[in-house]
Design goal:
This protein is mostly helical and 135 residues long. Helices cover 40% and strands 0% of the residues. The chain has helices at 10-23, 32-43, 76-79, 87-95, 97-100, 113-123.
């Protein structure tokens, strides 16, 4: 009888499933305005756009490495994760933060796929503005 290779861990399988689902979701079109409202209702108790709270500020989050802001005290797991925040990784994060980065400190997730899509669409609009007078 031939032995099969061990199956991937449940954690790895759930991360892969979340990333694939986030990247190929056939859900409703993303809405920045709905995302702003969901952010205000579910995220703003710990985060803000420009200022750190219990969680880091979100301006410029899309395209930034996880744990990269020097003036925020991230968990060791987040700081060493090497994750780049893209739309797909943010959707996986909001689906199940612990599956994406074991040992991280966020104990909240968005269960609704449309809300995750919309929040990520909103986060993608949060760009750094150049200082006044800079060109």
């Amino acid at each position: 009888m031939k032995h099969l290779a061990p199956l991937p861990s449940l954690r790895l399988a759930s991360v892969v499933a979340a990333l694939l689902s986030a990247a190929h979701s056939p859900g409703a079109a993303q809405s920045v305005e709905r995302g702003r409202a969901v952010y205000a209702a579910h995220c703003s108790s710990c985060h803000s756009v420009a200022l750190h709270g219990d969680g880091p500020a979100h301006v410029g989050v899309v395209g930034r490495r996880a744990g990269a802001l020097k003036d925020f005290d991230y968990s060791p797991a987040l700081r060493s994760s090497k994750i780049l925040w893209t739309r797909a990784t943010l959707k996986a994060w909001l689906t199940n933060p612990e599956a994406l980065i074991p040992g991280q400190g966020m104990d909240y997730q968005l269960d609704d796929e449309r809300e995750r899509e919309d929040v990520v669409a909103y986060l993608a609009t949060l760009k750094y503005a150049p200082p006044a007078g800079a060109r």
